[in-house]
């Protein structure tokens, strides 16, 4: 990161943040007449809450678009250099989690972190995706699978010797876990719903 020119870095960071802050779940549900996503289920803007509208296609589209904005931000950053790609990806993740348009109340970042990870290192992205799907199949609890996948990425990065990338992914994973604080409380209480169940 020592070769970064911060005046130049402002461009990919700014573009990454603005791209990441697009609340696709909220936009899609409004455009299709499914209502204000913030008034449905958990109030979260991510794909899991979109699924609670009963629109599986919208949930899938939200998931893919939230992944894509993270990956595209990295690709924009790559035009400036490898370090800028990492910064742009982090900015996109932060834009999703803390979007200025929604008073910094955004999503939990799992899908966007996956997109960022895939674009930065496809092998780590595949580990992330595999753990996410495997944990979801085993538990049918979205929060568990998302947190497990997020923490798997920095662990995998350390195993292959990519410590610098691993530290960055660890920081993102800790934010993902922080954003799941309420879910962790419900997991402890045994009240966390499984995928397909409504949240009371």
The percentage of residues in β strands lies in under 5%
- Supply the number of structural domains: 1
Helical/strand content category: mainly alpha
Average pLDDT confidence is 92
Which ranges are low-confidence, i.e. pLDDT below 50, for 5 or more consecutive residues? none
Element-by-element helix/strand order: HHHHHHHHHH
Morphology call: globular
Please summarize the sheet with the most strands. none
Share of residues in helices: over 70%
Q: What value does the Rg take, in angstroms? A: 16 Å
Instruction: Figure out the total of helices.
Output: 10
Euclidean distance between termini CA atoms: 46 Å
The count of strands amounts to 0
Folded structure, characterized:
- The chain has about 200 residues and is mostly helical.
- It has one domain.
- Helices cover about 70% and strands about 0% of the residues.
- The chain has 10 helices and no strands.
- α5 runs parallel beside α9 (about 165-180) and α7 (about 120-140) runs antiparallel to α8 (about 140-160).
- The radius of gyration is 16 Å and the shape is globular.
Compact summary:
The protein has one domain (6-189). The protein has helices at residues 6-20, 24-31, 47-51, 56-78, 82-97, 110-120, 122-139, 142-159, 163-179, 181-189.
Question: What is the topological layout?
Answer:
Blueprint: H1 6-20, H2 24-31, H3 47-51, H4 56-78, H5 82-97, H6 110-120, H7 122-139, H8 142-159, H9 163-179, H10 181-189
